[in-house]
Design a protein that fits this description.
This protein is α+β, with helices and mostly antiparallel strands. The protein folds into two domains: about 250 residues, Alpha Horseshoe (Leucine-rich Repeat Variant); about 110 residues, Sandwich (Immunoglobulin-like), CATH 2.60.40. Helix content is about 45%, strand content about 20%. Strand 7 and strand 8 form a beta hairpin.
Amino acid sequence: MREQRTLFDLTQDGLVIGQKLQRIYPEFDVPAFVADVRTEMEGQTIYNVTKAIGRALREHLPQDYSEALAILMGYVKVEAPANPGQHPTAEVETSLRPISHFISLYGLADFDASLDAFETLAKHRCARGAEMRAFIIKDPNRCFERFGEWVKDDNANLRLFVCASLCTRGTWQKWLRPYIQDPQPILALLETRKNDADGRVREQVGTDMRDIVKDYPEAGYARLEQWSRDGRAETKKILQRALKYQVKIGDKRAFKLLGLGTVPKLGKADITLIELTPERQTLPINEPFRFSFSLQSESDTEQTILTYYAVAYKRPSGHVTRKRYRLSQRKLKPKQRVDYKKSLFPLPSLKQYHDGKACLGWHRFELEVNGDVLDGFDFEVVK
């Protein structure tokens, strides 16, 4: 397990990057840059260091974006390994990720050069699809033209980057639906990668199709029905991933396409909830959320229960959102008791994102069984 990093470590990252940049660009003021990185990190978590460095770079490079990018790509040429791997080392990621953030923040000033830079960084798995969002919104045709070239590349990381860029939804970023009315260009690109040799790419295709089915249901289902005819095990996994949410909400088309039969109808559960307990009532941001509870069947016959948990919270805009997550579906024997103890990766509302946004303060957790809310509790998320 990677050790927890401190602000000192992150300032050292800025120092190392600054010293290396100074060799390429002698005017680079390393002490001032390190001080700015520390300032950018004030009030944020260590997860935001690469973006903090990316913002600080803007003040210490030439104001002409194209000139600044040329310096940074000279740095990338020196720092990037000769043979990109599926997963970069911590040193490579720390060194190159800030450059990708810099491009995502300021790159529209030189569109084509920025896309070239993203291509280089993506091959080393040091660029993320979400960083392409502003570029797709600005000029989808130019982006899709480049995507069409990149999906044919031998580098699997670049193909994965394309697919990750095509998510029409996302947390803390603009959704593509308002800007792209016709999903066919996206579907055409995903079509080329549904049989990709790399499992990561196929998995991302399934994730993208999950968004497509939500935002463009007719087009999404039509494409999935075509794919289902090839009978490949890999394609079935894509369909299962793409329709995971639709199965959860009982969409008949999803059940039919996956061969799951009819949508199960669950009656009111004859159970008693015992000791729904959070590990703590105050949860630090970016920490796992843990809770435990028990369910006691009161029925003399076997019964099926479908259990969800829901988290309500207030967004930075003030809007209150409630999201449901499937926990389990199981058959309980007469008078059976089942115990749950869950440690979950931070939910979207429990993370601080690269731009510093976080849903601090009031949250509410509720437990649902067969559609009925049994109980819940309030908790607070803090820095």
